[in-house]
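I had to read the description of the data format several times before I understood it. For illustration, here is how one protein appears when written out as sequence plus structure tokens:
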Amino acid sequence: MRIGLYPGTFDPVTLGHLDIIKRGAALVDRLVIGVAINRDKGPLFSLEERVDMIEAECAELSRKTGTEIVVHPFENLLIDCAKDVGAQIIVRGLRAVADFEYEYQMVGMNRSLDDSVETVFLMAEARHQAIASKLVKEIARLDGDISKFVPPLVRDRVLSRMGKI
């Protein structure tokens, strides 16, 4: 069984994330969405809320593709999380050159820790390349329309959390 791990904080999950999830699911039999507990980022949503949103958004995709998609919170090293879930590959999304520079360093470090786990990069669809969770939150905070960047359920939860609806 081919198992992939797609890690991130997903605060909130965006259409860009979902694009990578859909395309990553086509490469493996099981795709584990690793939701990072990153206390340094000061997330808008709790871990439980982020897990819930991802599960809700991925349920139909899992049924359509036949790929098992599971959500797994983690707070350890990414390479250790990959071992914990039995992943042979780490799936990473790229939006721009700046992403590549960071990801290049991460691959080097991860391969130094365990060279049996491969990293696969997927370029975000052109229409999703500018989307970043941080920017979605900023646009919502300043009363902008985020409906082009996140699914309706997530849009409503972001706006509700910010007291906008």
Summary: The longest strand covers residues 30-36. The radius of gyration is 15 Å. The first helix runs from residue 15 to 25. Helices lie at 15-25, 47-65, 78-85, 97-113, 133-141, 152-161.
